[in-house]
Write a structure and sequence with these properties.
- The chain is an alpha/beta fold.
- Helix content is about 20%, strand content about 20%.
- The strands form two sheets. Strands 5-2-1-6-7-8 form a six-stranded parallel beta sheet. Strands 3-4 form a two-stranded antiparallel ribbon.
- Helix 3 packs parallel to helix 4.
- The longest helix has 14 residues.
- The two termini are about 20 Å apart.
- Bound molecules: pyrazine-2-carboxylic acid (VGL) and zinc ion (ZN).
- The site of zinc ion has 6 residues, from loops.
Length: about 210
């Protein structure tokens, strides 16, 4: 069984970077790593958190404070500051990211009634995005994943990739977490490992690019 790899970049968008609406601490540090990784893959896909205004995950839509947890149509939902609103600057990929190299972009979180941390499906696991079918069409069986945030969108994308049968490598130094609790990212990494992810440092990611 040959390895057919793709690089999957998670939510490297302005709102998750320094100064952004939902800034992930040290989030900017993943950008140069992602750019270096992009030089090693023929297939590069990316997710983009892409919410309509007044999305159900926004605290402002419920007259609540950010980081409270509510029940959103039957699912626990952390309430976030307004972020990654469709078409806004904050929703764009980081300026420094070499985004012209991206072959396919999967937008998620577009349904106002449910959040979507995973690039593959909404948080209720009900509606699939186009990500799995896109990867299947490209015969991809192995994913190298990095981006933001380790304890939310990276984690749930990794878990969903594993359940869909992909071999998954987490590029650990290419991720940063929200860490509302100081060890959330570490716990997320343990959870991903228990589910079968393999941890790799960016320096150890092979160059898969056809010469
Ligand atoms: C994310 C919280 C809300 C993420 C997206 O990209 O990890 N986190 N929306
Ligand atoms: Zn979001």
């Amino acid at each position: 069984m040959s390895i057919r790899p793709a690089l999957l970049l998670i939510d490297i968008q302005h709102d998750f970077l320094e100064g952004g609406a939902l800034a992930v601490p040290f989030g900017n540090e993943v950008i140069p790593i992602a750019n270096t990784m992009m030089e090693r893959f023929d297939t590069i896909v990316a997710t983009q958190d892409w919410h309509p205004p007044a999305h159900g995950s926004f605290a402002s839509a419920h007259q609540r404070l950010p980081y409270e947890v509510i029940d959103l149509h039957g699912l626990p939902q952390v309430l976030w500051p307004d972020h990654c609103v469709q078409g806004s600057f904050g929703a764009q990929f980081a300026t420094a990211l070499h985004s012209t190299q991206i072959d396919h972009i999967t937008q998620k979180g577009t349904d106002p009634t449910v959040d979507s941390y995973s690039g593959f499906a909404d948080n209720g696991g009900r509606i699939e995005t186009d990500l799995h079918q896109t990867l299947q069409a490209k015969n991809i069986n192995t994913l190298y994943i990095c981006g933001l945030a380790t304890d939310y969108c990276v984690k749930f994308t990794v878990l969903d990739a594993l359940t869909r049968g992909y071999t998954v490598f987490l590029i650990v130094d290419g991720c940063r977490g929200v860490n509302q609790q100081f060890n959330d990212s570490q716990e997320a990494i343990f959870e991903m490992e228990r589910a079968g992810v393999q941890l790799i440092a960016s320096v150890d990611v092979p160059n898969y690019k056809a010469t």
